[in-house]
Design a protein that fits this description.
Distance between the termini: 10 Å
Structural class: mainly alpha
Order of helices and strands: HHHH
Mean pLDDT: 94
CATH superfamily: 23S rRNA-intervening sequence
Strand content: under 5%
Radius of gyration: 15 Å
CATH class: Mainly Alpha
CATH architecture: Up-down Bundle
């Protein structure tokens, strides 16, 4: 791809999966205790929103810069995975719900790393 050409983030499978994860997380957070609203719930929400948001923002940049935004998105996905482990430990989410979202996060990570390799 030419360095001046940009990606349409709405057509990217990684962005769509990131958005799906964000919506799944939003549904999960409805069941969290109210006392976590400004702590763990807020942090989990911000991480999940960061994943597709950084893909969208980076898509308007050069491939080199886009790769940096993909790194940020990946970092948010790993952070999200850790926070979900904390939530599972605190019994805010079930093992079944944890596994479902964990699988999607791992797929997002694989797809994003593959996409990033193809940018270079």
């Amino acid at each position: 791809m030419c360095a001046k050409q940009r990606h349409n983030y709405k057509n990217l499978k990684i962005w769509k999966l990131g958005l799906e994860i964000t919506n799944d997380i939003s549904d999960l957070l409805l069941n969290f205790p109210k006392h976590e609203r400004y702590d763990l719930s807020s942090q989990i929400s911000r991480c999940s929103v960061s994943m597709p948001s950084n893909i969208a923002e980076g898509s308007s940049r050069t491939n080199k810069s886009f790769s940096h935004f993909l790194d940020i998105s990946l970092g948010s996905s790993f952070e999200l995975g850790t926070q979900l482990l904390v939530a599972k430990h605190r019994q805010y989410i079930t093992e079944i719900n944890f596994k479902k979202i964990e699988e999607k996060i791992e797929e997002f990570q694989r797809m994003t790393m593959g996409f990033q390799r193809n940018l270079q």
